[in-house]
Amino acid sequence: MMPVIRRSLFILGCLFAASCNSNSPFYQVLITAPGVVSLTPGESTQFDLTLEREGDELGELRVNLESEPAGITLAPEVVLPAGETLVTTPVTLAVAQDIQVTGTQRMLLLATNAVNDVASGATFYVVVLPAPQTQPDFAIALENRQLELFAGQSEFVRVTVTRTAPFAGPVTLTVESPTQRISATPLVVTPEQTTVNFNINTETSTTRIPIPITIVATSEDGRQVKTGLTLNVR
């Protein structure tokens, strides 16, 4: 199971939301779900999705994933029965092995009632990281798949290098980023080292969204391994 960072998303709505006015019954829906989930093709993760409401409309509500790209699914459907105000359901978010998109995907959780005259939505992000690039003599692993930081802040990611005999040489860590506002000073992991803290830097002008980057380890003769990391920039 991949770690996720949870956040609560509050949505105010009304019956027949297209024409909200003072005569419309009031309701409030609270959806508690991950703010960001990072997965590679073929991976899935499970988390609890909580749906809570108060107000005048107490009919059955159902929550589904809307406007998702092909290859990202959420199951099962979350149902809040009529008359009840709170339900928590374990759900599984999955990314297909053959998904055709990568990077940050903005997703919509939509809560609707049986006749679709009540609707509330909450957004979160799924970051589809590229599949790791491997080779037989050494590998890298990250302690965390996601880093939380504010724009302009620097943060360490803990990287473990595993070498397979007879290879016992140094490797150099670098980053590949879609923006020049995210960078890292190359770090040499000596033959005596297995785990290091690799510092990732962001500029204050970095866009405040989850941004996928790639951690690269390169041997002296140019062989490389790569793995993805999400920076949740705030």
Question: So what's the overall shape?
Answer: elongated
Protein structure class: mainly beta
**With helices defined by DSSP (H or I, 4 residues minimum), what is the helix count?**
0
Pattern of helices and strands: EEEEEEEEEEEEEEEEEE
CATH superfamily of the largest domain: Immunoglobulins
Query: At the third CATH level, what is the topology name of the largest domain?
Result: Immunoglobulin-like
* CATH architecture assignment name of the largest domain: Sandwich
Helix content: under 10%
The tally of beta strands, per DSSP, is 18
* Total domains: 2
**Which stretches are poorly predicted, pLDDT < 50 over at least 5 residues?**
1-22
Give the overall average pLDDT.
87
Describe this protein's structure:
- Helix content is 0%, strand content 59%.
- The chain has 234 residues and is mainly β.
- The strands form 3 sheets. Strands 1, 2, 3, 4, 5, 6, 7, 8 and 9 form a 9-stranded mixed beta sheet that branches.
- The radius of gyration is 22 Å and the shape is elongated.
Task: Give a short overview.
By secondary structure, this protein is mainly beta. Helices cover 0% and strands 59% of the residues. It has strands at residues 5-14, 26-39, 44-55, 61-66, 72-75, 78-80, 86-95, 103-113, 119-128, 138-142, 146-149, 154-163, 171-176, 182-183, 187-189, 195-202, 210-219, 224-233.
